[in-house]
UniProtKB/TrEMBL annotation:
<dbReference type="InterPro" id="IPR000953">
    <property type="entry name" value="Chromo/chromo_shadow_dom"/>
</dbReference>
<keyword id="KW-0067">ATP-binding</keyword>
<dbReference type="GO" id="GO:0016887">
    <property type="term" value="F:ATP hydrolysis activity"/>
</dbReference>
<dbReference type="InterPro" id="IPR016197">
    <property type="entry name" value="Chromo-like_dom_sf"/>
</dbReference>
<dbReference type="InterPro" id="IPR023779">
    <property type="entry name" value="Chromodomain_CS"/>
</dbReference>
<dbReference type="GO" id="GO:0000785">
    <property type="term" value="C:chromatin"/>
</dbReference>
<dbReference type="InterPro" id="IPR038718">
    <property type="entry name" value="SNF2-like_sf"/>
</dbReference>
<feature type="domain" description="Chromo">
    <location>
        <begin position="60"/>
        <end position="138"/>
    </location>
</feature>
<keyword id="KW-0804">Transcription</keyword>
<dbReference type="InterPro" id="IPR023780">
    <property type="entry name" value="Chromo_domain"/>
</dbReference>
<protein>
    <recommendedName>
        <fullName>Chromo domain-containing protein</fullName>
    </recommendedName>
</protein>
<dbReference type="GO" id="GO:0003677">
    <property type="term" value="F:DNA binding"/>
</dbReference>
<dbReference type="GO" id="GO:0140658">
    <property type="term" value="F:ATP-dependent chromatin remodeler activity"/>
</dbReference>
<keyword id="KW-0539">Nucleus</keyword>
<dbReference type="GO" id="GO:0042393">
    <property type="term" value="F:histone binding"/>
</dbReference>
<keyword id="KW-0547">Nucleotide-binding</keyword>
<dbReference type="GO" id="GO:0005524">
    <property type="term" value="F:ATP binding"/>
</dbReference>
Length: 183
């Protein structure tokens, strides 16, 4: 149960913006024996501190590697997050790391020596994705020249099985996806 403090209940301030800090003052008073703090307040405070600590630990875990560059490459792609654009002077590879619990905009370039110590599996999975023959590479013919769009009038044989049939709106959605891909 979260307790909200108001300016009236906080003895130290009448400013509503600072009233949230009153809980911490009350807990401090509780610890030194001047209390008007309930055990629920102390438990809530301890839970909040524990959650904050767990979140900070989570932000130090690499979720996935997005890109790699060496110190020799002076150009950085413009589609990368602004805060991740920095230059490197060494020839050691750097990896663009997406951190767990943070958005892609907070990704950052990290040296291979730092990332490789704890997150070698992320580096390996990045290289296996890039070397995969199942996904087209950036200079693939498919990505340079798209086929002409042909409207599907009925359900293709490769979708569904026995007794499964697309509804009209699903076939329309499939046509829209195919049309968008062919542009």
């Amino acid at each position: 149960m979260e307790r909200r403090m108001s300016a009236e209940t906080c003895p130290l301030t009448s400013d509503p913006l600072k009233a949230g800090g009153c809980l911490y003052v009350r807990i401090h008073r509780y610890r030194i024996g001047l209390s008007k703090v309930t055990p629920e307040d102390v438990e809530y405070y301890n839970c909040q501190q524990e959650l904050a600590g767990e979140l900070n630990k989570q932000y130090q875990i690499v979720e996935r590697i997005i890109a790699v560059r060496t110190g020799k490459s002076a150009t950085v792609q413009s589609d990368l997050p602004v805060n991740s654009r920095r230059s490197s002077t060494s020839n050691e590879p750097e990896y663009l790391c997406k951190w767990m619990g943070l958005p892609y905009a907070d990704s950052s370039w990290e040296n291979e020596s730092l990332v490789g110590k704890k997150f070698q599996n992320c580096i390996d999975s990045f290289h296996s994705r890039n070397n995969s023959k199942n996904t087209p590479v950036k200079d693939s013919k498919v990505l340079r020249q798209r086929p002409r769009f042909v409207t599907l009038k009925k359900q293709p044989s490769y979708i569904g099985g026995e007794g499964l049939e697309l509804r009209d709106y699903q076939l329309e959605g499939l046509n829209w996806l195919a049309h968008s891909w062919c542009k």
